[in-house]
Amino acid sequence: MFKITESHIKREMKQLYPAPDPKRKEKFLRELPYPKASFAEMAAVQIGYIHKWVWALSLLLATGALAMGEYLAPGRNYGSLWCMSGAMPLLAVLAVTETFRSSAYGMAELEMASKHSLPQILLIRMGVIGSVDFFLAAAGILFIVRQGTMGMLRAAVYLMVPWLCTCVLAFQIEKHAKGGDTVWYCTACGCFLCMGCVISGQSGGIIYDRSKFYLWLVVFFALSICFARQIWHIRHGAEEWNLYLT
C-alpha cells in the first residue's frame, strides 16, 4: 500500500502551486533605500567583531614562547625557535576558529544576508587575524636571528611550516565537521601539532640542521599551495564548505 509522506505532499504542493517569478526584482533592489557601507567600513566592523581575547591570547602565546625559549636556552636561537614554533599552531587555531565562529554557532545564514558576501567577510576576518600572526612571527624571527647563527629565511620557514600545516588541517575540519564540535577538533589538532613541535624541536641541531633545510622548503611550498587552494575554494566555491550548511 502506497504511503503518503510529508515530503511527497510538499513536492506535490510545489508542483500544483508554483511560486510566481518576481517582477522588476533588479530594479527594486537597486532602488531599495538601505544603509550602504563601503569596503573599508565593512572591514572596520569585522575587526570590531573579533573577540578582544583573541588578540590578548595571541600576544601572550608569542611573548610567552619567546620568554620560555630564552629561559630554557639563554643565548641560543634553537631554544627560542622550538618554543616559538610550538606556539604557531595555537595561533593558527585561534585564527581559523575565530574566522569561522559564525558557522560553528549556526549564525552563518544571518551573515549571508549582509550586503557583502559571506566569503568576503570570512576572508577579511582571516586576513586581519593572519596579519597579526605574521607580525608576531616577524617579531619572533628578529628575536631568533639576533645571535647571527641563523638567517631570517630559515627562521621564517621553520615558523611558517607549523602555522600553515595547522591552517590546512583546520580548514579541512571546518569543511567537513558541523557545529561547535569544530572548535574542539581544531583545538585538539593545534595542541597535537604544538606538542609535536616542542618535542621534536628539543633535538635542535638534528631537526634544524642546515643540510635538511631543503626538506623544510619542500614542505613549505606544498603547504602554501594547499592553503592557497583552500582560500580560492572559500572565495569561489564556498557552497562546498560547512559555512553554508543549516
Span between N and C termini? 34 Å
Can you count the beta strands? 0
Strand content: under 5%
Q: Main β-sheet, in a few words?
A: none
Backbone structural class? mainly alpha
Structural key phrases:
single chain; 246 residues; mainly alpha; elongated; disordered C terminus
Structural description of this entry:
With 246 residues, this protein is an all-alpha fold. Helix content is 72%, strand content 0%. It contains eleven helices and no strands. It has helices spanning 6-16, 25-31, 39-49, 52-72, 77-99, 101-104, 108-111, 118-144, 152-176, 181-201, 213-236. α5 runs antiparallel to α10 (181-201), α8 (118-144) runs antiparallel to α11 (213-236) and α9 runs antiparallel to α10 (181-201). The longest helix is centred in the middle third of the chain and has 27 residues, at 118-144. It is elongated and about 75 Å long. The two termini are 34 Å apart.
Concise account of the structure shown:
With 246 residues, this protein is mostly helical. Helices cover 72% and strands 0% of the residues.
Question: Would you spell out the secondary-structure blueprint of this structure?
Answer:
Blueprint lengths: L5 H11 L8 H7 L7 H11 L2 H21 L4 H23 L1 H4 L3 H4 L6 H27 L7 H25 L4 H21 L11 H24 L10
Helix pairs in contact: 3-8, 4-5, 4-8, 5-8, 5-9, 5-10, 8-9, 8-11, 9-10, 9-11
